[in-house]
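=== Structure Prediction Worksheet ===
Name of assembly: unnamed complex
Input type: mixed (protein and possibly other molecules)
Chain count: two
Listed entries:
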Amino acid sequence: MSAKPIYLDYQATTPCDPRVVEAMLPYFTEKFGNPHSLTHAYGREAEAAVEIARAQLAALIGAESREIVFTSGATEANNMAVKGAARFHRQFGRDHVVTLATEHKCVLESAKALEAEGFRVSYLPVEHNGLVDLVLLDAAIDSRTALVSVMAGHNEIGVIQPLREIGQLAKAKGALFHSDAAQAVGKIPVDVNALGIDLMSISGHKFYGPKGIGALYLRRRPRARITPLIDGGGQERTMRSGTLPVPLCVGLGQAAAIAHVEMAGEAQRLLLLRERLYSGLKARIPDLVLNGDLEQRLPGNLNLSFPGVAALDLIAACPNLALSTGSACTAAEIEPSYVLRALGLDPALAAASLRIGIGRFSTATEMDEAATTLAEAALRLRSGMGVTSLAVGIT
Amino acid sequence: MSVGTTYLDWNATSPLRDEAIAAMQAALSHCGNPSSVHRAGRKARAMLETARAQVAALIGARPESIVFTSGGSEANVTALAGFPARRLIVSAIEHDSVRVAPNATVIPAKPDGTADLGTLDWMLAADPRPALVSLMAANNETGAIQDIAEASRIAHRHGALLHCDAVQAAGKIPFDFAALGCDLVTLSAHKLGGPPGVGALVVTPGIDIAPLIHGGGQERGRRAGTENLPGIVGFGAAAEAARNALEAYSRIAALRDLAERRLLAIAPDAIIHATQTPRLANTLCISMSGVAASTQIMALDLAGVMVSAGSACSSGKVRRSHVLEAMGVDAATAESAIRISLGWYTAESDIDHLVEAWGALYARTRASAA
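=== Predicted Assembly ===
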């Protein structure tokens, strides 16, 4: 190929930062000990590395080290939080979960699994801009609500929910507040104490760390109690059994340390890049629709509808761009995004929508090229020229 | 490994094989989510499917049987939680992630370190409700190899399913999923030279298992979550390397037997466990009578020799082995047992180092007792 495609899918996954790879490598090879083998030097060396990583991640979110439980990723953390909190609190008469219709599939599927176990689940609609209706939320939480689960920053439409207000509403009714912060941590400041979050899911590969690692933040005071999902050897203070993957923990810690220092400046830069791309597209396609609130939004996300253009055709017409229509987890599905449908988009407009994710390694040149390529392809498709003129410039 | 240290705790974790390192470096430099439809995603998907075929080949399974997980513990918990309509029967020598299964009845172990399959037969005959039986292929502490083919015949005769935790066996002994008649098998990458944080649950096609982790429908709906691509690719490469090196692996037994002979020559009163049954080539579980396992391990650690007192999973605590207890080993002997486990880099000089350090401790304790 002439060049690597421009990567515009930073919400699906991010490249591992070279500094993260460098930090991890020794723990794949010479420092390979099992961190639970505390009876010898290899194990202790591994355990020390894990604890440094735990502290780095805790510092990023204003938590204590011992409130961090390493998991295999945010999907596991979300399963653990939603199912674990509900199952634990059922004994106290709390058999109800409140969440949003626009949550990530793994939260919705976990909630569905709970329904099969006899729990009640309220799936709340959202406003047209993707934000929660706080009056509706307040009304939905009752004295039997075990958990309120709301995503911090959205994976498809990028909206940032009013976490502090949600936390206050949950606390007032004695419910726990869980937030899936897989897209938010490392991109925007998320302080668990300032926001009143009791449980929070974190993903390594969404902020330049490795795949296969994530974490669940579990508040200690007052203690957020859950039933573990993976029981066994008793690692992670019995909350999550299994040998900890030391190199991945180290990588997640390093990603957190980098984000801690660079996040604010990076957000500024991404906002400028995003504005450049968005205005470049809007100038050529005036009826372009932005989905999700523009202000309360992750700096690296756009979700755009190109009226009259099928998104899958548009992706096919831009082979030098790595794009998606929405969540990678459901990318192979033909149905338009349930998230966009929840915002009130009609099926045709939802099927005309792209998610654009930009990040640490995106450049201004890439934004200009992406804007030109996308706009030209969209206009061509709309004018009925179809996809005949594609495949320019790739070999 | 640094100079002067000898690593003999390979059943806890093994160093990464060179093949796995090379494969993972390529995967780490590629950014793509295997579920994305664009070119980067499709390339990631292709790498994932290659690894799936490599892992399947190690145990003679079909690629579509492989469900990648975050490791052996997750795979075990998924297997045992995946059949809520079946009662659970697990052996007394299982790993903790199997033993904690709620409401499981226990197959006792025999003094030779194997599960008592005659009792399993009787347990299944006595209660006609559908069951799931879990028996490990080889024990992590003693190395005792279990008769999985016989266990699956018994299980199937009574309409039960057989789950086999093959974490310690895969890559160490030939293990043929179909020939042994297993319905479910657990694998772990880091025990066979792959990276930590990856494993697999192998599920016979047609068996319907409830997922433990719900979500985006990855792994054919059996395990949600973005695939740990570099980890999985490393697992695949390690599995292929392990398969090619199976015959060489059996030769580790010569070194292990050498260690046994030399330790017994120093301490004729030492007891080696599970010697009456076929064992993994690399595993040696030995009791130095009258000396606590923790004392031995600390003394060996100071001398630069790394071994363990059984499973590494108990968060560092040295406690009496449930495996030895189930075999009927008396408490004093069980409390003085250490596990020595060798690997493909182990050399005779490592055995010298072990024998020297262990022998010195033995001499000191016997001198002070005299």
